[in-house]
Amino acid sequence: MTIEKGQPWGSPGALPTHGVVVRSDSEARAIVERARRAGTPVPALGLLGGDLCRTVGGAGDETRLHSGEGTRLPVDIGAVLIDGRLHWFVAHLVVRKRWWRGRVFAAMNAEYIGHWDVAPRSHPNDGLLDTFDVTMSTGDRWKARGRLPTGTHLPHPQIKERRVSAIQVDVDGLDVWLDGERVGPAHSLSIRIEPDALTCVV
Questions:
Q1: Fold of the domain spanning 80-195
Q2: Are 177 and 183 in contact (CB under 8 A)?
Q3: 141: left (phi over 0), alpha (psi -120 to 50) or beta
């Protein structure tokens, strides 16, 4: 069950013996994709790094994951049909050629992309993706860049924000990046959230 306003999130606990320690979003995504394609349960993930880890307040302390002093959290994952082939992501999907020119589209399950606080309202267990469709000029992007680390680039009239459980997007051959890894060019995306699909320990 996804988080509800005013309710506690997560519970104390250690990483289960079958859990997997990951140090990046791309490592986490690889585990999720492998399990989904095999039709097996996704193992619990102990987060030591990455944008999802930062979003949920992970300390990067592996000892904590195994000691019972950690926190076990239910987390959503994103699923995307890219020109007919299904993929998954844990932190974010980004569509772009370049950051500073042309269209940029992002679907965020985490709050951060690197040092940027891209989606200040995003929560990885609210059953929603925070999406941003950017068409602003290069000059305006450079101005917004200075505000990205603090999340104060929003609201902006040239950034279309939506919070959705599912969305379809035409991307006209732009490159798709999942959790920081380039998947390749695409034309049509069908994106949705899978609530409570993953257990993370931090």
A1: Tumour Suppressor Smad4 (2.60.200)
A2: yes
A3: alpha
The position carrying tokens 């599912």 is 166
How many beta carbons lie within 10 A of that of residue 172, not counting itself? Answer: 12
Query: Which phi and psi (to 5°) does residue 51 adopt?
Result: -70, -35
Residue ranges of domains in the chain: 11-76, 80-195
Cβ 179 vs Cβ 31: under 8 Å:
no
- Structure tokens that stand for 84 in this block: 């007919």
pTM assigned to the model: 0.92
Is residue 43 very low, low, confident or very high in pLDDT (cuts 50, 70, 90)?
A: very high
Count of Cβ atoms closer than 10 Å to residue 14 Cβ: 17
Q: Are 67 and 46 in contact (CB under 8 A)?
A: no
Q: Amino acid letter at 1? A: M
Residues in the chain: 202
